[in-house]
């Protein structure tokens, strides 16, 4: 298994819709893709790991983070449409802009990562700083190492595995019992 990382940066001049930014700055992007061996690919298909989440995020928190900037854009849309049309039309358009942008932000900012997202062309992550980019790289290396270990252990899932349990010394056994009872 290989984790392929591709880094890039995008300069925003005055305004960027996703993520909502006003003013100039740089957004860093990280494209992460997994390259599997034939054996790993076979195990992935056999146990249907492609649909498995590597990272599960709280959808409520992701929705809250997505709704706030969408609400700002909805308010701006309301003002603009109110000037151009009526209050009722402006309110309807503002609601529509808020709902659509909430979905756009939710898909862009969510932290949940599914295995299939890293396989088919990879997944792009946006980072606000170089430090965030490095942290995201380290995090992806960590979770991909876990996936690699799961695939390695899946080789023996149909079998029965014998794991020897060594006896503890008298003092270690007493400490283990005391620790378990407290």
Care to describe what's here?
The protein is of the alpha+beta class. It has one domain. It is 55% helix and 20% strand. The strands form 3 sheets. It has a 3-stranded antiparallel sheet. A two-stranded antiparallel ribbon has the order 2-3. The radius of gyration is 24 Å and the shape is elongated. The mean pLDDT is 84.
In the predicted model, the low-confidence regions spanning at least 5 consecutive residues are: none
| Rg from Cα | 24 Å
Instruction: Provide the number of structural domains.
Output: 1
Number of strands: 7
The helicity comes to 40-55%
Describe the main β-sheet briefly.
3 strands, antiparallel
Walk across the major sheet and give the strand order. Answer: 1-4-7
In angstroms, what separates the terminal alpha carbons? Answer: 43 Å
* Rough outline: elongated
Strand content: 15-25%
Mean pLDDT: 84
Structural class: alpha+beta
Number of helices: 6
What's the helix-strand series?
Answer: EEEEHEHHEHEHH
